[in-house]
Amino acid sequence: MNWKQLLSAKRWGYESRAINEQFDARSEFQRDYDRLIFSSPFRRLQNKTQVFPLPGAVFVHNRLTHSLEVASVGRSLGRLFYNLMKEQHPNIDAEVPFLQEVGNIISAACLSHDLGNPAFGHSGEAAISTFFTEGKGQKYQEMVTKEQWEDLSHFEGNANALRILTHAFNGKDPKGFALTYTSLAAIVKYPCAAIDGHVKSSHHRKKYGFFDTEIGTFEKIATELGLERDPANPKGYLRHPLVYLVEAADDICYNIIDLEDAHHLKILSYKEVEELLLPLCAGEDLRERLDALEDTASRVALLRAKAINTLIWACAKVFAENQDKFLSGTFEKPLMDALSPEIVDQLRVISKISVARIYNAPTVVQIEIAGFKVMNALLEEFVPAYLKANKSMFDRKLVAMIPEQFHTDKEDTYSKIRAVLDFVSGMTDVYAVELYRKIQGISIASLE
């Protein structure tokens, strides 16, 4: 793989249009970022759970604020990488004109990296998968292909993001979001189909990156950008190198910022957060600055900023120094796992504390359980209703609640189930709960 081909401003759905390299205000990749910012799926992230329940009396991050922060970190990672490359190759702009746009490409990809995640965080993904593996959806296994069943029984938010960005939904632009090929490729962490994924020993196949419906879509993107086939999986591909920077931006944010939220919610004391973050604040003695701040939230904010800065510089340096491995697809671990032993060890300590104290905090577990029940109940109502040939009056009313954009004119079982999943996975936490309550007769609009 080579950077000149990997960085393409060709747009999905507008392949025949000439690329304008003379920009008045925005580059093609900045246009990607702006299209995402102003989109409805992105706005809906404000009511999707990141870790802690929302809304609450104390502000915590939701999917939208998380995505914005990841985009900010991603832009810095890309810009630092470009600067390092520029130092090593002074003529790089002439050789690879779009390399200077890497920061904008990564920030756009970071904005969309969680676009396909359903309500209630990972619990929502688990609820959709479990509906098919253990719930009433098991009966549909015989009605779809083996490849399609792997999609349904292992719902994947990353694959759903690619679908949202490229699928021609009813009444919407048939070209999807019309993002650049490179921005689209940069979000696909595991460039293989579901049936070839879930291989823990392969960094390219730990999960999967596109549904059965988007196989042709990704193959078109991969061919244009020159992505190489995975030697261990000829039907899949090796990652686009920029995926590593998008992944690192996400890893940096949730490792550090979840601690800040935990402090705000009094799950972790200031002293505990300081002990976790101070070892990551390299290159500066912060003791005097920290002691001068009486507000513990301000101290945590300072520690958070310095820790993120350390990780950004370290990741950008590793990425620049290992170009051959990234371009050949032989870098077999996340950037965060390739940092100095001291940083990696401290991140493991943070991860251990986060799992024990944050991700298993009572409020987090409660929302996961509630979300699981809500999502499962919605699927139990909408999937059978949409699939039935002879619909009852109740079935017809349920189907009428599905917005026209999600309907399909295809008659096969998989396409119809996928249409319902498009609807349900796009719901916010608040809307999913409200719809669940109304369908179950717990609340009635006119009586509230």
TrEMBL record:
GO terms for biological process: dGTP catabolic process. It comes from the Bacteria. GO terms for molecular function: dGTPase activity. Keywords: Hydrolase. Residues 59-264 form the HD/PDEase domain. It holds the Pfam family HD. The keyword Hydrolase applies. Coiled coil: none annotated. The keyword Hydrolase applies. PANTHER family: DEOXYGUANOSINETRIPHOSPHATE TRIPHOSPHOHYDROLASE, DEOXYNUCLEOSIDE TRIPHOSPHATE TRIPHOSPHOHYDROLASE. This is dGTPase. It comes from Sphingobacterium lactis. The lineage of its organism: Bacteria, Pseudomonadati, Bacteroidota, Sphingobacteriia, Sphingobacteriales.
